[in-house]
Amino acid sequence: MQDRFSSFPATADRLADIEAVFDDCADGRNCRCAYWYLPNADYKAGWGEGNRNWFRSLVAEPRPPGILGYLENEPAGWCGVAPRAVFDRLRRSKPFAAVDDRPVWSTNCFIVRKPFRRQGLSRLLLKYAVEFATVNGAACLEAYPVDQAARASNGAELYPGTLSMFLDAGFAEVARRLPARPIVRLECR
């Protein structure tokens, strides 16, 4: 499958494809990754169209907020990946508080369109997110996956990725402040 998969930075010229991915996911359709960037009040007030408009302005900024994956030229998935410092929620979170003072990058959201699920696309998105972060100067990539061995989770709760997916990609657990939500890291250089 990897030979049929490609990824590109999520830039304004790909907005229609990005929206096709988000629109195929009930929570993604309304969230648009605003959860990670905005204070709670703004995020909740923008649920739906407000977050959609906010996300359009985010994609228009010089630094892409993530990557878009294609399977045979069809938009298939999204991965949010950017410097940790841009994510307001991470700055305020006790469970995901900074492990140290390193300027790490974070990946925090995976969306795969329904027709492309259960084919390993999240793992491919992660592979290309690591490459994207590295090319853009990240020395270390951090994530906050769900440990399914610690707690049963439904599909909607797995948007940050699964612990097994990250461990298989070479990430190591560096902290765990919630039973089912470890913090994992990968050295990029």
TrEMBL record:
SUPFAM superfamilies linked: Acyl-CoA N-acyltransferases (Nat)
Superkingdom, taxonomy of origin: Bacteria
Pfam families: Acetyltransf_1
Gene Ontology molecular function, alphabetical: acyltransferase activity, transferring groups other than amino-acyl groups
Domain N-acetyltransferase, residue spans: 16-189
Coiled-coil stretches: none
Signal sequence, renumbered to the chain: none
InterPro entries in alphabetical order: Acyl_CoA_acyltransferase, GNAT_dom
Identification of the protein by name: Acetyltransferase (GNAT) family protein
